[in-house]
Design brief:
The chain is of the alpha+beta class. It is 47% helix and 9% strand. It contains 19 helices and twelve strands. Strand 10 and strand 11 form a beta hairpin. It starts with 24 loop residues before the first helix and ends with a strand. Bound molecules: protoporphyrin IX containing FE. Protoporphyrin IX containing FE is lined by residues 78, 103, 107, 172, 279, 282-283, 286-287, 290, 351-352, 355, 448-450, 454, 456-458, 461-462. It is found in: Membrane.
């Protein structure tokens, strides 16, 4: 019947595939961006592909992003798309295991802790952790102290994943977590992380050992945070006999402890614990991938590396020299090249290449985005998933000049000028090509942090963390890629886009 009946002309075009259930899983899984660009050439900005039995409708371009990220939560739902993946990892009653309105309140609670006063404190902590790491970690210590300044090398992904968790735990997660980053914590973290893979998204429950390990680790991690909360309470009441040297004021648990839902209810210990796990997972791979990519590009580009070093010296004085001043939160806005290298890296390598929603009510596609004919409109049926792609947006040749080129100067006023070729119909306003001029709206072509109601709340923290780490590395190390190697290609087989191996960076201590 399906073969004989014509397809409903109001359905978006479907990508041709040979294998019925598998659909385009291989092309999408291997290189989603290439797949999307090819489909766009053939079918336009809106098309449906089959991914292991699910129908996924992709909407590209500013209007496509707007339809998905600006959609109403009763029409396009994040929780329906993600809960089977995230709830076993984060735990119950938070994020996508609660009504959307509760998530919005939980995001506000966390934002309360992500404030300027805390960021001021975090800067020094992150700089200290980074210096400690690059001067004492086993991958760095010998080269760092080599009297002849011989070159050594480190693995960008592995080392900066370690440094990300050290700095996030020292700041957001709190000193008890930082002091307990031992083998047990690492094992639990790895088991939880093992449940955060594309296979878990596609097959929510399988009788595999990794699923059992994930569930056990979730329970252990939840207890771990709830213990910290209870010990803090006892200490506050003077009823604790432990001598833990804790500094709790500026972390997110302290912020959550003061919050109440609109109905007057405080967060339960379990909710607080699960929010902390969610933050750990949300910030870890995204920030560590971004620092690895940024350093790989900097190592590959001597001129930018020199520019960054000179920016540091100009602003703070010679590292270790007379009059040298440490970097503070307020300095971040006066370091345009440091800001631009992070911004540009996130344009080309947004860690999340596909943002999903589940369609809960038939969704008409605006005619200005795509339509079967002048009079008709496409309708995305209830039950489909919709997908917006920050990677396609950031590399769109209709918007960016030389989109595949990593050129941080496109963001700097008076820089290369190879910024975004904005057209008025896209932004709705006049936009110059310079630094910080891109809107944050759902139609923006720059969406590494998403847009709309589910937009990331960790952006400012990510800039604090990445800015302090990169500045500290630049002040202390010279870097280069091994001879004959460029920046590695992207690996899309992980949940977050990582550099493919090998991804070593050669380094020596600055003279
Ligand atoms: C949401 C990216 C760091 C917490 C998001 C989304 C993106 C994103 C694309 C939107 C997801 C969607 O719409 O489905 C990033 C990147 C980061 C980063 C690129 C670093 C470079 C962080 C950090 C935290 C965090 C450090 C925590 C401190 C969150 C939360 C949400 C979110 C709570 C909201 C989820 C929702 O409302 O559904 N992030 N993130 N992120 N992120 Fe981040």
């Amino acid at each position: 019947r399906q073969l004989i009946l014509p397809r409903d002309p109001n359905l978006p075009p479907e990508v041709f595939h040979v294998l019925p259930i598998i659909g385009s899983a291989i092309q999408y899984g291997d290189d989603p961006i290439n797949f999307f660009f090819k489909c766009r050439e053939k079918y336009g900005d809106v098309f449906t592909f089959v991914l292991l039995g699910r129908k996924i409708t992709v909407a590209l371009g500013p209007k496509g992003s707007d339809m998905i990220l600006g959609g109403k939560p009763n029409v396009v739902s994040a929780e329906e798309a993600y809960t089977h993946l995230t709830t076993p990892v984060f735990g119950k009653k938070v994020v996508y295991d609660c009504p959307n309105d509760s998530l919005m309140q939980q995001k506000k609670f966390v934002k309360f802790g992500l404030n300027t006063e805390n960021f001021r404190v975090y800067m020094g902590m992150i700089e200290e952790e980074t210096y400690q790491f690059i001067s004492t970690d086993s991958a760095f210590v010998d080269t760092f102290n080599a009297p002849d300044r011989a070159w050594g090398s480190f693995n960008a992904v592995k080392s900066f994943a370690e440094l990300t968790i050290l700095t996030a735990s020292r700041t957001l997660q709190g000193s008890e977590v930082r002091s307990k980053l031992d083998k047990t914590f690492a094992q639990r973290y790895n088991d939880l992380d093992g449940g955060f893979k594309p296979i878990n998204f596609l097959f929510p429950s399988l009788p595999l050992p990794s699923y059992r390990r994930r569930d056990k680790a979730q329970q252990a991690m939840s207890r771990f945070y709830q213990d910290i909360i209870q010990r803090r309470r006892q200490r506050a009441l003077g009823a604790s006999d432990d001598n833990e040297d804790v500094e709790v004021e500026h972390d997110i648990l302290a912020a959550l402890d003061q919050q109440k839902y609109r109905d007057g209810r405080s967060l339960s210990d379990e909710e607080m614990a699960h929010i902390m796990i969610a933050l750990l997972m949300a910030g870890q791979h995204t920030s560590s991938a971004t620092s690895a990519w940024t350093l790989l590009h900097i190592a590959d580009n001597v001129a930018v590396q020199q520019g960054l070093y000179e920016e540091q010296v100009k602003h703070f004085g010679l590292p270790g020299g007379k009059g040298f001043k440490p970097m503070e939160y307020e300095d971040l806005k006066d370091l345009p090249l440091l800001d631009a290298v992070i911004r540009e890296t996130l344009r080309i390598h947004p860690p999340i290449h596909s943002i999903f929603r589940k369609v809960l009510q038939d969704l008409p596609v605006p005619q200005s985005l795509a339509a079967p004919s002048e009079s008709g409109a496409f309708v995305i049926p209830k039950g489909h998933f919709v997908l917006a792609s920050p990677s396609v947006a950031g590399m769109d040749p209709n918007i960016w000049q030389n989109p595949t080129e990593w050129d941080p100067y496109r963001w700097v006023s008076g820089g290369s000028g190879a910024g975004a070729a904005f057209k008025d119909e896209i932004s709705g306003e006049k936009v110059d090509y310079g630094f910080g001029m891109i809107s944050k709206g759902t139609e923006s072509p720059y969406q590494p942090f998403g847009a709309g109601r589910h937009r990331c709340i960790g952006e400012s923290f990510a800039y604090v963390q990445l800015g302090s780490i990169i500045a500290t590395v630049i002040r202390n190390l010279e870097m280069r890629l091994p001879a004959g190697r460029g920046v590695p290609p992207q690996n899309y087989h992980t949940m977050i886009v990582m550099p493919k191996s090998p991804c070593d960076i050669e380094f020596r201590r600055r003279a």
